[in-house]
Design a protein that fits this description.
The structure is a single chain. By secondary structure, the protein is an all-alpha fold. Helices cover 69% and strands 0% of the residues. It has 16 helices and no strands.
Length: 324
């Protein structure tokens, strides 16, 4: 019995640490947009629509966030992190030629013939993008777009590839060409809208994302991106509506509160965390943040109450585990 109790306590500690790490993961340097990273830590999808391999486990990605944060704490360096590419490098790719430039981290793909069509280059570029061979993907997708300027998917995926290389302006140009070729595609509009958002053009981003949301009213990623853009415009009520449409009222409140914290608006963040707590009194994320924020704004009694509620939940969880 003593052994089982000890194991239960260790499991509870590990879960508590994981939850804390998941929350703080966004504070460490990560790839991707910082705002999008914040809400993605709560399981919300945001950012561009990228080509992904089938069978990807969203839950596994969410649960792995704390352990990635743990690795960063101990100075783990990702040797596979994509390196930024220069404008000179890009110039080599933007031609109709079929020569491939390898990433150095991956095996060479099969070289296409000089008579290959735009769609064959598109397929090769998509495959390279999925495999993480970004330089090769840019070469193939640039060729596809050159051979057929109206091939929207080539421009769209080229924008994704440029995003991965940190070339935001190039990505935006590619997304704009994709939208011009196919103006009513929700995912292409989303990618352009998010690119505009990353470049600080929030009004234009909202315009594109609202159009995308009308075309795909149940798409979580589009709605979350729209929420992020509203946050940057200071329209937090509108942001909450978008977040709530995407992931429900509980997560909508949490995401809005997180963004308000990023803008150092503690009192407003508290309101949304309290709203989340009313929906789920046992919401440990809301209670943890309330305990900290109430202390920060000079309300120690409310901070103590939130901390006690959190401790009570942990105690009940320990008892439940020990009794199994």
């Amino acid at each position: 019995m003593h052994k089982r109790t000890l194991i239960a306590i260790l499991i509870a500690f590990a879960l508590t640490f994981a939850a804390t790490a998941m929350w703080t993961a966004a504070t460490y340097e990560r790839e991707g947009d910082p705002d999008a990273n914040v809400i993605e830590d709560s399981g919300s999808e945001a950012g561009t629509v990228r080509e992904q391999k089938k069978g990807g486990n969203k839950v596994a990605k969410i649960l792995s966030a704390p352990f990635k944060a743990f690795g960063k704490l101990f100075g783990h360096k990702d040797d596979n992190r994509l390196q930024r590419m220069s404008e000179k490098d890009i110039a080599k790719f933007e031609s109709v030629g079929v020569a491939r430039v390898q990433d150095g981290r991956s095996a060479a793909g099969q070289k296409l013939s000089v008579t290959a069509s735009a769609r064959e280059h598109l397929a090769a570029g998509r495959e390279s993008l999925l495999a993480g061979r970004i330089n090769e993907a840019i070469a193939e997708l640039s060729t596809a777009a050159s051979l057929d300027p109206k091939l929207s998917e080539a421009h769209n995926l080229l924008g994704v590839a440029f995003d991965k290389k940190g070339l935001a302006e190039r990505a935006k140009d590619s997304y704009e060409r994709a939208v011009k070729a196919e103006p009513d595609d929700a995912q292409t509009l989303n990618n352009l809208g998010f690119s505009l958002y990353q470049n600080g053009n929030y009004r234009a981003a909202i315009d594109k994302l609202k159009r995308a949301a009308k075309l795909a009213p149940t798409d979580d990623r589009i709605l979350n991106n729209l929420g992020l853009a509203y946050c940057r415009m200071g329209k937090f009520d509108e942001a909450y509506k978008s977040f709530a449409r995407a992931t429900g009222e509980l997560t909508g409140n949490l995401n809005t509160a997180k963004m308000l914290e990023r803008f150092a608006r503690e009192d407003d963040a508290i309101k949304y965390y309290e709203a989340a707590r009313r929906i789920d009194p046992n919401c440990t994320i809301a209670l943890r943040r309330l305990a900290d924020l109430y202390q920060r704004v000079g309300k120690p009694e409310q901070a103590t109450a939130a901390a006690n509620a959190l401790a009570s939940i942990s105690a009940h969880a320990n008892v439940a585990m020990a009794g199994r």
